[in-house]
């Protein structure tokens, strides 16, 4: 017989995951202020995450100005037609050793029968920034 989960276990979610879920619920209930909300979340990040998020924001807005800046689970995201195409997740969000740049299924990044949809980012080099620009361009093509 399985033990009943206690309310503190919250079905196995960590405190950080529960906070992200609550953030997403707030986002869906209120009117988004797009870029203002996104920039506010970037400003709240730890220094290393903030530097990466600022560069990614600059890259995305330069190469894909048609994408709508917004927040998604309390993190920077960029949408087309209301659907998130690309997002950034700060390492500090879930206390991980790297940040994540991810693409959702609406992104046109298909490459054969298998391709990556998320990338770990420990630091951004000029080559990384170029690759991000290429991926975002491809994602919205």
Characterise this structure.
The chain has helices spanning 15-29, 35-43, 47-63, 126-139; strands at residues 68-72, 75-80, 83-89, 99-103, 118-121. Mean pLDDT is 90; it is low at 1-10. Strand 1 and strand 2 (75-80) form a beta hairpin. It is built from four helices and five strands; from the N terminus they run H-H-H-E-E-E-E-E-H. Strands 1-2-3-4-5 form a five-stranded antiparallel beta sheet. The longest helix is centred in the middle third of the chain and has 17 residues, at 47-63. Helix 3 (47-63) packs across helix 4 (126-139). The protein has a single domain (14-139), classed as Alpha-Beta Complex (Aspartate Aminotransferase, domain 1), CATH 3.90.1150. The chain is of the alpha+beta class and 141 residues long. It starts with 14 loop residues before the first helix and ends with a helix. Residues 1-11 have a biased composition (Polar residues). Residues 15-33 have a biased composition (Basic and acidic residues). It comes from Cellulomonas humilata. Residues 1-33 are annotated as: Disordered. This is DUF1801 domain-containing protein.
Name some characteristics of this structure.
141 residues, alpha+beta, Aspartate Aminotransferase, domain 1, five-stranded antiparallel beta sheet, 5 strands, globular, disordered N terminus, DUF1801 domain-containing protein
